[in-house]
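Quick one: C-alpha coordinates for this chain, please?
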Amino acid sequence: MIPDPAPGRFAAAYLAPGTSSFSDFLRAAGHQTLTVPVSADLSSTVPHGTTIVAFTYRDGVVMAGDRRATMGNLIAQRDIEKVFPADEHSIIGIAGAAGLAVELVRLFQVELEHYEKIEGIPLSLDGKANRLATLLRSNLGFAMQGLAVVPLFGGYDLHRSRGRIFSYDVTGGRYEEHDHFAVGSGSVFARGSLKKLYRPGLNENAAVTAAIEALYDAADDDSATGGPDLNRGIFPVVALATESGVTLLDEARMAGSVGDVVAARRDRPDGPVAALPGGES
Protein backbone atom coordinates (compact mmCIF):
# COMPACT_ATOMS: atom_id res chain seq x y z
CA MET A 1 0.00 0.00 0.00
CA ILE A 2 1.47 3.34 -1.04
CA PRO A 3 1.25 5.94 1.76
CA ASP A 4 -0.66 9.11 1.07
CA PRO A 5 1.65 12.00 0.20
CA ALA A 6 1.88 15.12 2.29
CA PRO A 7 -0.43 17.91 1.13
CA GLY A 8 0.88 19.53 -2.03
CA ARG A 9 3.49 16.84 -2.72
CA PHE A 10 3.65 14.04 -5.28
CA ALA A 11 3.30 10.43 -4.18
CA ALA A 12 6.51 8.41 -3.95
CA ALA A 13 5.79 6.55 -7.21
CA TYR A 14 5.97 9.85 -9.15
CA LEU A 15 9.47 10.59 -7.86
CA ALA A 16 11.04 7.13 -7.84
CA PRO A 17 13.10 5.95 -10.83
CA GLY A 18 11.36 3.22 -12.80
CA THR A 19 11.02 1.56 -16.17
CA SER A 20 10.05 3.18 -19.45
CA SER A 21 6.64 1.44 -19.31
CA PHE A 22 3.73 3.76 -18.61
CA SER A 23 1.47 0.87 -17.58
CA ASP A 24 4.07 -0.28 -15.03
CA PHE A 25 4.15 3.25 -13.62
CA LEU A 26 0.36 3.30 -13.28
CA ARG A 27 0.43 0.07 -11.32
CA ALA A 28 3.21 1.41 -9.06
CA ALA A 29 1.18 4.56 -8.43
CA GLY A 30 -1.83 2.49 -7.41
CA HIS A 31 -3.94 3.21 -10.50
CA GLN A 32 -5.92 0.35 -11.99
CA THR A 33 -5.96 -0.20 -15.75
CA LEU A 34 -8.10 -2.79 -17.50
CA THR A 35 -9.40 -4.07 -14.15
CA VAL A 36 -11.31 -7.33 -13.91
CA PRO A 37 -15.11 -6.81 -13.76
CA VAL A 38 -17.64 -8.63 -11.64
CA SER A 39 -18.09 -12.33 -12.37
CA ALA A 40 -20.75 -12.21 -15.07
CA ASP A 41 -21.06 -12.66 -18.81
CA LEU A 42 -21.60 -9.12 -20.14
CA SER A 43 -20.81 -9.84 -23.79
CA SER A 44 -24.38 -9.31 -25.03
CA THR A 45 -24.90 -6.01 -23.20
CA VAL A 46 -21.96 -3.94 -24.48
CA PRO A 47 -21.23 -2.63 -27.99
CA HIS A 48 -18.80 -4.69 -30.07
CA GLY A 49 -16.71 -3.53 -32.98
CA THR A 50 -16.42 -5.84 -35.94
CA THR A 51 -14.20 -6.11 -39.01
CA ILE A 52 -10.65 -4.79 -39.57
CA VAL A 53 -8.43 -5.62 -42.57
CA ALA A 54 -4.75 -4.89 -43.09
CA PHE A 55 -2.19 -5.73 -45.75
CA THR A 56 1.16 -4.61 -47.03
CA TYR A 57 1.51 -2.65 -50.24
CA ARG A 58 4.29 -0.98 -52.17
CA ASP A 59 4.84 1.88 -49.71
CA GLY A 60 4.00 0.24 -46.37
CA VAL A 61 0.77 -0.94 -44.72
CA VAL A 62 -2.88 -0.11 -45.32
CA MET A 63 -5.46 -0.79 -42.59
CA ALA A 64 -9.22 -0.30 -42.87
CA GLY A 65 -12.22 -0.81 -40.62
CA ASP A 66 -15.96 -0.69 -41.07
CA ARG A 67 -18.00 1.73 -38.92
CA ARG A 68 -20.64 -0.48 -37.26
CA ALA A 69 -20.83 -1.47 -33.60
CA THR A 70 -23.39 -4.07 -32.55
CA MET A 71 -25.01 -5.03 -29.26
CA GLY A 72 -26.57 -8.44 -29.68
CA ASN A 73 -28.91 -8.15 -32.64
CA LEU A 74 -29.01 -4.36 -32.46
CA ILE A 75 -26.87 -1.74 -34.18
CA ALA A 76 -25.34 0.17 -31.26
CA GLN A 77 -23.53 2.77 -33.39
CA ARG A 78 -23.29 3.36 -37.12
CA ASP A 79 -20.18 5.52 -37.28
CA ILE A 80 -17.73 4.19 -34.67
CA GLU A 81 -14.05 4.51 -35.55
CA LYS A 82 -11.90 1.39 -35.14
CA VAL A 83 -8.61 2.34 -36.80
CA PHE A 84 -6.21 4.72 -35.02
CA PRO A 85 -2.63 5.96 -35.36
CA ALA A 86 -0.59 4.30 -32.60
CA ASP A 87 2.36 6.63 -33.15
CA GLU A 88 4.14 8.31 -36.04
CA HIS A 89 4.75 5.11 -38.04
CA SER A 90 2.23 2.53 -36.78
CA ILE A 91 -1.52 1.87 -36.80
CA ILE A 92 -3.84 -0.14 -34.56
CA GLY A 93 -7.29 -1.48 -35.43
CA ILE A 94 -9.73 -2.90 -32.87
CA ALA A 95 -12.41 -5.58 -32.82
CA GLY A 96 -14.31 -6.87 -29.81
CA ALA A 97 -15.75 -5.02 -26.77
CA ALA A 98 -15.71 -1.44 -28.03
CA GLY A 99 -15.28 0.44 -24.74
CA LEU A 100 -12.40 -1.71 -23.55
CA ALA A 101 -10.82 -1.64 -27.00
CA VAL A 102 -10.79 2.17 -27.12
CA GLU A 103 -9.31 2.28 -23.60
CA LEU A 104 -6.62 -0.18 -24.68
CA VAL A 105 -5.76 1.95 -27.72
CA ARG A 106 -5.43 5.11 -25.62
CA LEU A 107 -3.24 3.34 -23.09
CA PHE A 108 -1.09 1.91 -25.89
CA GLN A 109 -0.66 5.34 -27.48
CA VAL A 110 0.47 6.83 -24.17
CA GLU A 111 2.73 3.81 -23.55
CA LEU A 112 4.61 4.46 -26.80
CA GLU A 113 4.81 8.21 -26.21
CA HIS A 114 6.01 7.68 -22.62
CA TYR A 115 8.76 5.30 -23.74
CA GLU A 116 10.01 7.76 -26.33
CA LYS A 117 10.11 10.60 -23.78
CA ILE A 118 11.97 8.51 -21.20
CA GLU A 119 14.44 6.79 -23.56
CA GLY A 120 14.83 9.55 -26.13
CA ILE A 121 14.18 7.20 -29.06
CA PRO A 122 11.04 5.42 -30.29
CA LEU A 123 10.53 1.70 -29.80
CA SER A 124 11.27 -0.59 -32.72
CA LEU A 125 8.23 -2.00 -34.48
CA ASP A 126 8.86 -5.37 -32.81
CA GLY A 127 9.07 -3.61 -29.45
CA LYS A 128 5.74 -1.89 -30.06
CA ALA A 129 4.13 -5.20 -31.01
CA ASN A 130 5.48 -6.78 -27.82
CA ARG A 131 4.20 -3.94 -25.64
CA LEU A 132 0.72 -4.36 -27.12
CA ALA A 133 0.84 -8.09 -26.32
CA THR A 134 1.66 -7.26 -22.69
CA LEU A 135 -1.31 -4.88 -22.43
CA LEU A 136 -3.60 -7.49 -23.93
CA ARG A 137 -2.44 -10.07 -21.41
CA SER A 138 -3.60 -7.77 -18.60
CA ASN A 139 -7.08 -7.83 -20.18
CA LEU A 140 -7.38 -11.63 -19.84
CA GLY A 141 -9.85 -11.39 -16.95
CA PHE A 142 -12.25 -9.47 -19.19
CA ALA A 143 -11.74 -11.86 -22.10
CA MET A 144 -12.66 -14.86 -19.94
CA GLN A 145 -16.02 -13.20 -19.30
CA GLY A 146 -16.78 -12.58 -22.96
CA LEU A 147 -15.36 -9.05 -23.15
CA ALA A 148 -12.48 -9.83 -25.46
CA VAL A 149 -10.43 -7.22 -27.32
CA VAL A 150 -8.71 -8.41 -30.50
CA PRO A 151 -6.46 -5.78 -32.09
CA LEU A 152 -4.64 -5.77 -35.39
CA PHE A 153 -1.35 -3.87 -35.43
CA GLY A 154 0.73 -2.74 -38.36
CA GLY A 155 3.33 -0.19 -39.27
CA TYR A 156 6.30 0.80 -41.33
CA ASP A 157 9.51 -0.78 -40.03
CA LEU A 158 12.21 1.87 -40.44
CA HIS A 159 14.96 -0.70 -39.84
CA ARG A 160 13.71 -3.12 -42.50
CA SER A 161 12.26 -0.46 -44.85
CA ARG A 162 8.94 -2.23 -45.33
CA GLY A 163 5.46 -2.61 -43.86
CA ARG A 164 4.67 -5.37 -41.34
CA ILE A 165 1.47 -6.69 -39.73
CA PHE A 166 0.87 -8.39 -36.36
CA SER A 167 -2.22 -10.22 -35.11
CA TYR A 168 -3.04 -11.26 -31.53
CA ASP A 169 -5.18 -13.66 -29.57
CA VAL A 170 -7.05 -12.80 -26.36
CA THR A 171 -4.23 -14.14 -24.16
CA GLY A 172 -1.72 -11.70 -25.65
CA GLY A 173 -0.18 -14.12 -28.12
CA ARG A 174 1.55 -12.19 -30.90
CA TYR A 175 1.83 -13.45 -34.47
CA GLU A 176 3.43 -11.76 -37.46
CA GLU A 177 1.26 -12.09 -40.56
CA HIS A 178 2.51 -12.13 -44.14
CA ASP A 179 0.90 -10.00 -46.83
CA HIS A 180 -2.63 -9.62 -45.40
CA PHE A 181 -4.92 -10.42 -42.47
CA ALA A 182 -8.32 -9.54 -40.98
CA VAL A 183 -9.98 -9.74 -37.55
CA GLY A 184 -13.55 -9.46 -36.32
CA SER A 185 -16.86 -11.11 -37.08
CA GLY A 186 -16.58 -10.54 -40.83
CA SER A 187 -12.91 -11.48 -41.04
CA VAL A 188 -13.48 -14.86 -42.68
CA PHE A 189 -15.22 -13.16 -45.62
CA ALA A 190 -12.74 -10.27 -45.78
CA ARG A 191 -9.78 -12.66 -45.80
CA GLY A 192 -11.40 -14.71 -48.56
CA SER A 193 -11.85 -11.54 -50.57
CA LEU A 194 -8.24 -10.44 -50.02
CA LYS A 195 -6.96 -13.84 -51.17
CA LYS A 196 -8.37 -13.03 -54.61
CA LEU A 197 -7.68 -9.28 -54.67
CA TYR A 198 -4.24 -9.03 -53.10
CA ARG A 199 -1.11 -8.70 -55.21
CA PRO A 200 2.39 -7.93 -53.91
CA GLY A 201 3.49 -4.38 -54.68
CA LEU A 202 0.05 -2.77 -55.06
CA ASN A 203 0.20 0.99 -55.46
CA GLU A 204 -1.69 3.25 -53.06
CA ASN A 205 -4.89 3.62 -55.10
CA ALA A 206 -5.12 -0.12 -55.74
CA ALA A 207 -4.45 -0.86 -52.06
CA VAL A 208 -7.21 1.50 -50.89
CA THR A 209 -9.64 -0.01 -53.40
CA ALA A 210 -8.76 -3.56 -52.31
CA ALA A 211 -9.40 -2.63 -48.66
CA ILE A 212 -12.81 -1.18 -49.50
CA GLU A 213 -13.69 -4.23 -51.62
CA ALA A 214 -12.73 -6.61 -48.78
CA LEU A 215 -14.90 -4.73 -46.26
CA TYR A 216 -17.76 -4.62 -48.78
CA ASP A 217 -17.57 -8.40 -49.15
CA ALA A 218 -17.51 -8.81 -45.35
CA ALA A 219 -20.61 -6.61 -44.99
CA ASP A 220 -22.32 -8.58 -47.75
CA ASP A 221 -22.21 -11.79 -45.70
CA ASP A 222 -21.86 -10.65 -42.07
CA SER A 223 -24.71 -8.66 -40.51
CA ALA A 224 -22.41 -7.22 -37.81
CA THR A 225 -20.18 -5.54 -40.40
CA GLY A 226 -21.44 -2.26 -41.78
CA GLY A 227 -21.17 -1.46 -45.46
CA PRO A 228 -20.66 2.08 -46.80
CA ASP A 229 -23.67 4.31 -46.08
CA LEU A 230 -23.85 6.78 -48.96
CA ASN A 231 -27.02 8.47 -47.68
CA ARG A 232 -25.43 9.32 -44.33
CA GLY A 233 -21.93 9.81 -45.73
CA ILE A 234 -20.46 7.07 -43.53
CA PHE A 235 -17.42 5.39 -45.10
CA PRO A 236 -14.77 2.98 -43.84
CA VAL A 237 -11.80 4.43 -41.98
CA VAL A 238 -8.63 3.79 -43.98
CA ALA A 239 -5.11 4.52 -42.70
CA LEU A 240 -1.73 4.23 -44.39
CA ALA A 241 1.61 3.75 -42.63
CA THR A 242 4.62 4.64 -44.78
CA GLU A 243 8.17 5.83 -44.33
CA SER A 244 6.88 9.40 -44.16
CA GLY A 245 4.36 8.62 -41.39
CA VAL A 246 0.73 7.65 -40.79
CA THR A 247 -2.05 9.13 -42.93
CA LEU A 248 -5.79 8.86 -42.29
CA LEU A 249 -7.65 9.31 -45.57
CA ASP A 250 -10.14 12.16 -45.46
CA GLU A 251 -13.84 11.88 -46.24
CA ALA A 252 -13.53 13.48 -49.68
CA ARG A 253 -10.97 10.88 -50.76
CA MET A 254 -13.04 8.06 -49.26
CA ALA A 255 -16.26 9.29 -50.87
CA GLY A 256 -14.66 9.06 -54.30
CA SER A 257 -13.07 5.63 -53.75
CA VAL A 258 -16.20 4.15 -52.15
CA GLY A 259 -18.38 5.64 -54.88
CA ASP A 260 -16.29 3.91 -57.55
CA VAL A 261 -16.58 0.54 -55.77
CA VAL A 262 -20.35 0.87 -55.23
CA ALA A 263 -20.89 1.87 -58.88
CA ALA A 264 -18.90 -1.16 -60.07
CA ARG A 265 -20.94 -3.44 -57.79
CA ARG A 266 -24.15 -2.41 -59.53
CA ASP A 267 -22.92 -4.24 -62.63
CA ARG A 268 -21.13 -7.04 -60.74
CA PRO A 269 -22.72 -7.41 -57.27
CA ASP A 270 -20.25 -10.09 -56.16
CA GLY A 271 -17.26 -7.93 -57.00
CA PRO A 272 -14.28 -8.32 -59.32
CA VAL A 273 -13.26 -11.81 -60.39
CA ALA A 274 -9.90 -13.21 -61.34
CA ALA A 275 -9.24 -14.24 -64.93
CA LEU A 276 -8.68 -17.98 -65.31
CA PRO A 277 -6.28 -19.53 -67.84
CA GLY A 278 -8.24 -20.52 -70.92
CA GLY A 279 -11.41 -18.89 -69.64
CA GLU A 280 -13.22 -15.70 -70.48
CA SER A 281 -11.68 -12.49 -69.14
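The helical segments are 12-15, 22-28, 98-119, 125-137, 140-143, 187-197, 204-221, 251-267.
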